[in-house]
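Self-study notes.
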Amino acid sequence: MSYVVLGCRLLIAVVFAVAAGAKLSSRSGFAEFAASVRDLRLLPRPLATPVAVAVVAAEGAVVAAMAVAPAAGFVLAAALLTAVTAAAVAAMRHGRRVPCRCFGASGRPLGPRHVARNAVLLAAAAAGFAGLATAGASAVRPAGAVLAALAGLVAGAVVVRLDDVIDLYAQA
C-alpha cells in the first residue's frame, strides 16, 4: 500500500465519519440535516427524510469500506461527493441559501467554498483509487506510514473545520 493511498483513506474516513456522526449524534442533528435536504427543494418533499437517511447510511458505508475494501470506499465516496456537490450547485443556482449541515449545526449557507472542498475530496478519492491500482509490493517503512497517517488525519480535521478556519482568518 502506498503512502498516498493510506493518507487518502484516512482523510476520506475521517471526513465521512465526522459527517455521519454529527448527523446521528442527536435527534435534532438528524432532523436539522433532513430539513436542509428538504430546503434544497430538489426533490419531492416526502423524499427528503428517506434521502437524508440514505446519505447518512452511505457516509457510514464509506467509513466501513475504507477499513476493509478501500477501492469500493473510494468509489462510493466519489459517487456521494458528486451527488451532494451537484445538489449544492443546483441549490446555489436557484438562489437557495440552505445551511450546510455536512458536519453538524453550521448555519453557513452552502456556497463556493463547499463546492471547492468537495472537489478537493473528490481529487483525494481519485488519487487514492489510482494509488491502489498502481501500488506494487514495495516495502512500506513505518515512519512513512506514520507520516502518511498523520497527514490524512490532520487533513481530515482541517476539512471538517474548514468553515471555522476560513471565518477565523476572514475576521483578521
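Second protein, same conventions, sequence then structure:
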Amino acid sequence: MLEAGLPGEALISIVDDDSSVREATKSLVKSFGFAVETYSSAEEFLASGRCESTTCLIADVQMPGMSGLDLHRKLVSSARRIPTLLITAYPDERIQAEALQAGVICYLAKPFKDTELLLHIRSALGRQGVDCKEP
C-alpha cells in the first residue's frame, strides 16, 4: 500500500513475504522521511505498475516464488535498473557474492541497524540523482 509522499519524492518499495518484517521496515523507512510502498512478493511488485516510479527497492532474499535476487535480475534484464538492497535472515556468502556481482547495492543480514539501512538507501538514491532528506 502506498504511503503518500510529495511528487518527485523518492519512493522506496519494500518486498518481503514476512508481514512483521515488511511493516517494521516500512515504519523505519517512513521515519527517514521517504514515501514507502510494500509488497508481499516479487510477483506482486512486478504486477503493481509501480516499478517505474520506484527509486529504491528493498527486497528479502528468500521468498516463496521469486527470490529477491531473481527479482533484481529480472528488473535488470528488462532494462529497469532500480537500485536494490537485499535483506536476509539467512546470510550466505555465496548468495551475497552473486548479489553484489549482479549489481545490488548491498546485502544486509537481519536484524540490521537503522543507520546502516539509511546509509545504503542514501547511496542508492545518490546513484539515481535523487536528493535525500535528513531524518
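Instructor comment on the second fold: The longest strand covers residues 11-15.
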